[in-house]
Specification:
This protein is an all-alpha fold. Helix content is about 70%, strand content about 0%. It has a domain at about 90-255 and about 265-295: Orthogonal Bundle (MetI-like fold), CATH 1.10.3720.
Length: about 300
């Protein structure tokens, strides 16, 4: 009887956690090793470009591509910013990118709100036309756009670049916003209508602020595209005062001599802003995508 009472008095201890097997530890070790090697492969081109920008032409062609610069040529950055007019190109890239992104987001928000919240006969047709435009190849529009801009005197005008960026980014932006708007609860807007809120106040004070996560996603995607775009600027812009960074690199390519170090410095300067923006705002991409894909 005493043994039974002793066994009954012992409290129920939590079961010990199962230890990871030796094979699981090896598996995780190989996984981390593979991910580390993959990260190095992805980061190394940026490091190589930095070393490339600090070399002379003699070091570029006379040494191994993996060799470090013997005497870092930091003056390549000074040459790129001053002699290469990169400061003007950098400023043009910034304001053209920002203006195009803002215009794209505003117009895409208008279209998506009108299609998903307003009842009119041609809403489906209009939405279909916007989405079909996503299938049009960019290069097939160069000649028609050039003729159209030339007829209205927009060649060598930054407005032609802004309009082109906005038009080609609208379909993808509408597609991303469409998934979020369809899951957005209508009860909030219906309650605002019951309180006498106008359609303009509903959009600007209720709907638009609540779509900030997905708007951040579209802003980042459009910013990366606009910043790196080359074809439109190279086709529609001829004067140096309106060129962007992607086209300004050609200034260092001559008929008999090419300054490869200055080209590398220009590439580093052009990469840094978009790289920083992506590193600090990359979580917004995942958040915005998830907001439009999970119904709640």
């Amino acid at each position: 009887m005493s043994e039974v009472r002793t066994q009954q008095a012992i409290p129920n201890l939590p079961a010990p956690k199962p230890k990871k097997s030796f094979l699981n530890k090896i598996g995780f070790g190989f996984l981390y090793l593979f991910l580390g090697a993959f990260a190095i492969i992805q980061i190394y081109p940026l490091i190589w470009l930095l070393f490339f920008s600090l070399k002379t032409n003699k070091e570029v062609f006379g040494m191994s591509p993996f060799a470090l610069p013997q005497s870092p040529q930091w003056e390549n950055y000074t040459k790129a910013w001053t002699s290469g007019n990169i400061g003007v190109y950098f400023f043009n890239s910034v304001w053209i990118t920002v203006l195009s992104v803002v215009l794209t987001i505003i117009l895409a928000s208008f279209v998506t709100f009108a299609v998903t919240r307003m009842h009119w006969k041609l809403s489906g047709l209009v939405l279909g036309l916007f989405l079909v435009a996503y299938m049009i190849p960019l290069h097939s529009t160069i000649i028609p756009l050039f003729k159209m801009y030339n007829s209205v005197n927009l060649i060598d005008n930054p407005l032609s670049i802004v309009l082109s960026y906005t038009a080609f980014n609208l379909p993808l932006t509408i597609m991303i916003l469409l998934g979020f708007y369809k899951t957005f609860p209508r009860e909030i807007e219906e309650a605002a209508i019951m309180d006498g809120c106008s359609i303009h106040r509903i959009f600007f004070q209720i709907t638009l602020p609540m779509t900030v996560p997905v708007l951040s996603t579209t802003a980042i995607i459009n910013m990366i595209y606009n910043w790196n775009e080359f074809v439109f600027v190279n086709t529609f812009i001829s004067s140096d005062k309106w060129k962007t960074l992607t086209v300004g690199i050609n200034n260092f390519v001559g008929q008999y001599l090419t300054d490869w170090g200055a080209i590398g410095a220009t590439l580093v300067i052009s990469i840094v802003p978009i790289l920083l923006a992506f590193l600090f705002l990359s979580d917004k991409i995942v958040e915005g995508m998830a907001a439009g894909s999970v119904k709640g």
